[in-house]
Amino acid sequence: MDQSHSTSVISFFSDLSRTDLNDTLKAHFSLTNRLSETMSEFASKLGSSYEKFSSELKMLVKSFRRKNDELKKERHLGQGNFFSIWEAMMMEIEGEASAYTELASSLQQTVAQPLAEFTSKKRAQYKKLFAYREQIEGTLVKSEEGLQKRHREYAEAWTKYKAQDKDTLKECAIILGAVFLMCLCFMGPLPLALLFSTLALSLAM
Question: With the C-alpha atoms ordered 5, 11, 17, 21, is the resulting torsion angle positive or negative?
Fold first, then answer.
């Protein structure tokens, strides 16, 4: 039962993984623990009250049995039916006193103590779970910050690379333009066209 409950608690946490629910979850579990503590305290005090009441009933019957023993000495003067009813009532009260004693013991053993143990275990479990949850959330935040930092660094590096690439293309264009003009001046338009056609074919191959 404890294992299945633990599994359900873990499943409950996994379904509520949003960080903005932490305060709500803590408030919920705090209320649950306080309710368990209150129920355990009530059962314990109720059991004590029943036990005290049982003792008082037993003392009451015991004190009146002494008086009854004195009355029995003169029983031959009256009818016995009345005495029988009186003794039956005292026996019934004694039975109720014993029942209250058993009820008090049952409340302590099956309600108050198990609830107290349950509350203590769950408090420790929730404390451990919340600590683990906060640790994981901290790790995720750091990882996210690191990822964003690397993304910024990559974007800056790419921007610089693109800027350098544009500068390189401009320089190449200027050099090619200068070479074209020089060739045009010294070789004429027809040889220049043949030269550039040969150059283009070699680059294509």
Answer: negative
